[in-house]
Each structure stands twice: as C-alpha cells, then as structure tokens.
Task: inverse folding
C-alpha cells in the first residue's frame, strides 16, 4: 500500500519515546522522571523478582503444579514501570498475562497461583485491592475500563483506571469502543497496549495497516504515545503523565509499549519456533529491560551483584511459600460454586445443589 | 483407509474441499503458518497458499462479518473461532446477520459459511474456553448446528457443512480431538446433515445424545447390559435441525427414553428432544423422558470440572430411574 503524504505525516508523529538506551545511557535527560534512588532500586528489584517468578512459574507449570500460565519475561519494564506510576486508589483491569502488575497492586502471590489453577479464590480480590480478575476474553476489559473510569470521576475520586491488552487485542472492536467512550466522556482512563510483536503466532504487521498502534488514539480524539517498552524509565514517565492528565480532567491516554515476550505465548503447547526466528529473539534480547537498567544503576553505584543475588533468593523462597499456601486452599466443590450463581438461588439450582451434594459425597 | 484422529479427519475434510472448490477459503486467528492452536489447519496454508488459507486480525466480529461479505462475492468461507467461548464476540455476525441473509434478501443472497470451533469440557482449559453453547446456536433460526462424535463422522459431516449453501456451525469437542483413532477413508465422502445415527441397538430404553456424551452413553449402555437392560444409543450428529424421525422410531420400540447432554439443563437441546418426544409419541411412553445434564451454573473452574460434567454413571442412574418408573 502506498500511503499519501498526509497519512504519513500523521504516522510519523508517533516516534518512540525513550529515556534509557540499550547501553543503559540516558538519552533524553529532560524527560527523566523524578524518582529517588530508593525508588529506582525498587524498580530493579521488582524486575529481577518478576524474572525469577516467571522462571519458577514455567517450571511449576511443567511439573503440572500451576495450571494456566502466560510467560512475561521480556515485558518486565512495560509491566512494572506502568504499575509503579499508579497509586493504591487506581484501578487495574488486566489481561491474562498481566499478573505482575496486579501482584504489585496488592494481589498476593498465592492468590495469583490460585487464579492460574482455575480456583475461584483466585478471583476473590482482597478488600481495598482495586483489581479486576485477569481477563480471558480479549478486549472485554477495555470497554469496562471506560466504565470504571467514568465511575471514578462521578465519585470525584482522585484515581484513574488502567487497562492492559496486547498488539492483537488492539484489533478488537472493543479496543476502539473503550477508547472512544473514555474520550467522549472525558474519563480518567489509561489504555496500555503491550506490543510484544505477536498475537500467539500472528505478527503485528498482519493486524493492521497502521504503522503504530499509538496512532489509533487519533481516531478516538485522545492522546497517544509510543514508548520503548524495554525502557522502564520511559514506561514509568509516560504512565505518570497519562495519570496526571486523567486526574486533571484532560482525558484518557493510549500508551503503546514496544516489547517482546521471550517465551511461548502460554504454557499450553505453543511453539514459537513455528512463527519466529531465533535471530529475531536474539535482537530483542539485546534490548533486555533488566540488562539496561542494571547497567544504568551500576553506573550510579546503586546496584551490586550481592543485592541482586539476595532478591533472587527471596523470590525463590516467596514462591515456594506461596505455592505451599495455594496447595492448602480448599478443594473446589460444585456445591460451593452453585452458591455464587446469584443472590438468591432459584428452584432449579436448589434441586441441582442436592444432586451434587450426593455426587460429591461419593 | 487410514487411521485418523478427529483432528486429522477435520484437516482432511478441509483439504478435500480446498482442492475441490477454488472458492473455498479457510481463515481465522492463527490458522495460517501456525496451523491453528489445535493444528486443525496444519499444512493447509503451505499447500494452498496465503490467498486461500490465512490469518485474520484478532477480532471475531470481524471474522464473522468477513465471511458474510465474502459470501455475496461468491466465496465459501470456513471460518474458525479459536474457542467457542469467544463466539459471543461474533454472535451478531452469525446469528443476526449470516443466519438471516437469505430471509432478509428474499432468497437473493445466501451465506455458505462454515463456522468451525472447538468446545466442550474435560480438558481443563482456562475460563471461558469450554462452554457448550450449542443451545444458543440452535435457538437461532437460520443456522444448522453439527456436532460430530468420531473421526469418521467429522470428515463426512464437515465436507457436507462446507458444501451447504447456508451457514453451519460445526462444533468440535476438544476432548475428542485426539482421544482415539479410527478408520477414515482417504477419499471424499459426505454424511447428511440433519440425520442422526443409531450407534447401538437396544430394546428397553433409548438414550439420545451427541458429542462427547455419545461415548459416556455407550459406556453406560454396556454397564446397563450387565444388569439386563438393553439400551439403544442415538447420536444426533446434527443438533439443529434434530432428526425427529429416528428418535421417534426408536422410542416407539423401546417406550422409554433419556436425553444426555454435556451442556447445562435450562433450555437447550435436551429440552427440545424431550418436547418433540412428548408431542409425537406420548402414548408410546411407559415413563417420563428424563435428562442427564450439567447443572445450571457457569462452566466451572478447571479443578471442579470432573464432578460438574455428567458421566456414564449419571447416565446409568438416570436410565434405571426411567426403567424402574
Ligand atoms: C476474544 C478472544 N479471542 C481469541 C482469544 C484467544 N487468544 C488468547 S491470547 C491471543 C493472542 C493475544 O495476543 P495479544 O493481544 O498480542 O496479547 P499477548 O498474548 O501477545 O500478550 C488469542 C488469539 C481470546 N482469549 N479471546
Ligand atoms: Mg502480543
């Protein structure tokens, strides 16, 4: 397709926002967010922790002890950086891969594991933790975010709603509807598209004729920005700005983070060698978010190997304990699940409850 | 003849039709290079090219609309919905649009679309993947709904579905994809849509069922045999329209019946079958027609699946209840 100058001009406005390059050097000093040394160390801590958690989750899955799992390695900056810009009162509407963000927003590890295992307790969010159950239906969370954001505004809360989807998810009608609603009602919403280049096997180039996903904000009349998703400082700064914009009643923001998932789509039989090359994998691993942020922190004498080793050990210990705790969750019964079908149990379910009491007693 | 799993038979049927008719297109999410998440379209893009077998952007509503639109330009679409739990996204495109295109155009347009989709429980998928939503489809006038229970049936029925000039929802039970192999002819053959099959003859009770529950019912029939009860098992194969004739013939012989479905009880296929029997053969009945179904809850979380799903023991118990009535 040959694009007209006018179209190209619009597309060209969406250049990748970066603060930290692959070598860990600051390339955009003026955009540098205000973060204390401790906060920067916390960002690194969380990324290291998440990488270990991911490795453990993959191996637990292979042992048949975890259930559903969508690997996150490669996307740590995009996930951790965006969540770090939030406050406790903000809402997160995650997709199935966005477990690190909801963990750092207050969902305990063992509960995340229960969600993976398909246990209803995985969806029982603790009091005060403003997180929806990870969404399976791609796009459904995006229109709901417009609703949460509207509600927050009507309640006059100092809070925003953030949602996550992928490059594939940006093809759903719900994606446009969610952005358009939030724009039309001027609601404090943030739509993050983690563009990890693939929707299972389908490359992002096949999703759309648009050069960027960020530019799709234009059609909804909202702000859009494309961010280097391997650069935690850029992701943090962009999300922080989007949050401020929402709170100041200046509308929603679409953030596209350019990232990559190193692993398979999920642990349920996906084989990435069927659709991408190891050259592509290697090129992206050179952009690794942990490597570059570690270099940056080391250059400021803020990070040591010993510190990192401690975090690795801590993560392993926590995960072991969390799995043990998850193992202790009560066995799920159909009779318990029937009770969650509605406020009052209709006659058909009352009868079926009796049948299943009998069936489960055998 | 070759030994095939159901998934291989399905691939074979699509290959046959892609060869047979250049207007046949196969598309959906991940169906191209990846060969589908279950490998149902394995090798098809390589063999027939990206023009005929292709990935779409991730949007089920778009996929359904695409198929409808392709219909009026002369194409015959085989669209995949990656898991049937996602069909809600494209319910309008299917039930409101392609199902009515012939009616609304007074017969000028039609939609020769096959909607293929994996469904059904027992394989511990994440939430919203395994729902048995055939009842919703069956309640939508203008759609045929086909559910094979074996590799042989899958191939013959899928070829018929693709050749049908109206939309056919073709539901593939995930548990049956690779659970067994059987002889499937390599050459083409068709099986009629709307026609049930008597899987096992019997004289004391009729068990009407479809999909994975055919196997639970056959197992139950064997158990009943040991107790001196001779059960006839009917596999509907098409759940809309229902082959009433085969059912009534059987019930007139056995005078008793149960209907077994994996789906929830309310509304649904089993309820339709019971009503048809009551309307047409009530005087042949020695006992009420009872149903074996899942309870009226959302499809359960993975670890509760095994108990939630009906099994052969539930079938045996219900059959005995009818026999002893
Ligand atoms: C409505 C819907 N359609 C299809 C799927 C199956 N599916 C699960 S993940 C996925 C790809 C998603 O890709 P993307 O949005 O890029 O997110 P990523 O997995 O790469 O993070 C698909 C097709 C689904 N879960 N929901
Ligand atoms: Mg993706």
Result:
């Amino acid at each position: 397709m040959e694009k007209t100058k006018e179209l190209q001009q619009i597309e060209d406005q969406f250049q990748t926002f970066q603060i930290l390059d692959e070598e860990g050097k600051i390339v955009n000093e003026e955009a540098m967010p205000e973060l204390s040394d401790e906060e920067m160390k916390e960002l690194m801590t969380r990324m290291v922790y998440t990488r270990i958690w991911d490795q453990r989750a993959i191996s637990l899955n292979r042992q048949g002890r975890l259930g559903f799992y969508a690997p996150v390695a490669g996307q740590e900056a995009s996930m951790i950086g965006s969540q770090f810009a939030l406050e406790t009162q903000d809402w997160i509407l995650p997709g199935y891969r966005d477990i690190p963000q909801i963990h750092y927003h207050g969902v305990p590890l063992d509960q995340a594991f229960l969600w993976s295992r398909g246990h209803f307790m995985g969806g029982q969010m603790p009091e005060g933790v403003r997180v929806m159950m990870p969404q399976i239906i791609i796009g459904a969370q995006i229109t709901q975010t417009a609703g949460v954001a509207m509600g927050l505004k009507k309640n006059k809360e100092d809070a925003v709603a953030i949602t996550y989807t992928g490059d594939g998810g940006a093809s759903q009608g719900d994606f446009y509807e969610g952005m358009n609603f939030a724009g039309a009602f001027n609601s404090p919403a943030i739509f993050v598209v983690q563009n990890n280049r693939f929707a299972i096997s389908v490359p992002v180039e096949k999703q759309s004729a648009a050069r960027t996903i960020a530019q799709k904000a234009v059609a909804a009349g909202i702000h859009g920005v494309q961010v280097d998703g391997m650069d935690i400082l850029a992701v943090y700064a962009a999300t922080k700005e989007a949050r401020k914009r929402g709170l100041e009643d200046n509308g929603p923001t679409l953030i596209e983070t350019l990232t990559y998932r190193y692993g398979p789509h999920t642990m349920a039989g996906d084989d990435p060698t069927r659709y991408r090359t190891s050259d592509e994998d290697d090129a992206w691993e050179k952009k690794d978010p942990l490597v570059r942020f570690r270099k940056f922190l080391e250059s400021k004498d803020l990070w040591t190997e010993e510190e990192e080793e401690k975090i690795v050990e801590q993560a392993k210990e926590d995960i072991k304990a969390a799995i043990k705790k998850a193992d202790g969750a009560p066995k799920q019964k159909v009779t318990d699940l029937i009770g969650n079908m509605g406020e009052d149990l209709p006659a058909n379910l009352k009868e079926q409850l009796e049948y299943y009491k009998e069936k489960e007693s055998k | 003849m070759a030994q095939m799993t159901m998934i291989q038979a399905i691939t074979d049927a699509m290959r046959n039709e892609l060869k047979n008719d250049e207007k046949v297109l196969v598309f959906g999410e991940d169906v191209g290079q990846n060969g589908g998440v279950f490998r149902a379209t394995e090798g098809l893009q390589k063999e027939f090219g990206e023009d005929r077998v292709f990935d779409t952007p991730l949007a089920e509503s778009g996929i359904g609309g695409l198929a409808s639109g392709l219909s009026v330009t002369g194409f015959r679409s085989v669209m995949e919905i990656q898991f049937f739990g996602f069909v809600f996204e494209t319910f309008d495109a299917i039930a409101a649009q392609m199902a009515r295109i012939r009616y609304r155009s007074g017969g000028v347009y039609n939609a020769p679309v096959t909607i293929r989709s994996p469904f059904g429980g027992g394989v511990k998928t994440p939430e919203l993947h395994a729902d048995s939503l055939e009842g919703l489809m069956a309640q939508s006038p203008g759609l045929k709904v086909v559910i094979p229970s074996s590799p042989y049936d899958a191939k013959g029925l899928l070829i018929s579905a693709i050749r049908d000039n109206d939309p056919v929802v073709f539901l593939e039970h995930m548990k049956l994809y690779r659970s067994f192999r059987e002889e499937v002819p390599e050459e083409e053959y068709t099986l009629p849509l709307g026609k049930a099959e008597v899987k096992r003859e019997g004289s004391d009770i009729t068990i009407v069922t479809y999909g994975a529950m055919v196997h639970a019912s056959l197992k139950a029939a064997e158990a009943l045999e040991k107790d001196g009860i001779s059960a006839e098992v009917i596999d509907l194969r098409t759940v809309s329209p229902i082959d009433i004739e085969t059912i009534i013939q059987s019930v007139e012989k056995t005078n008793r019946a149960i209907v077994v479905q994996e789906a929830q009880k309310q509304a649904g296929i089993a309820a339709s079958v019971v009503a048809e029997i009551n309307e047409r053969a009530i005087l042949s009945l020695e006992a009420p027609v009872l149903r074996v179904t899942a309870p009226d809850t959302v499809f359960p979380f993975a670890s509760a699946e095994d108990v939630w799903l009906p099994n052969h023991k539930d079938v045996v118990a219900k059959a005995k209840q009818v026999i002893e009535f």
Summary: Chain A has a mean pLDDT of 97.
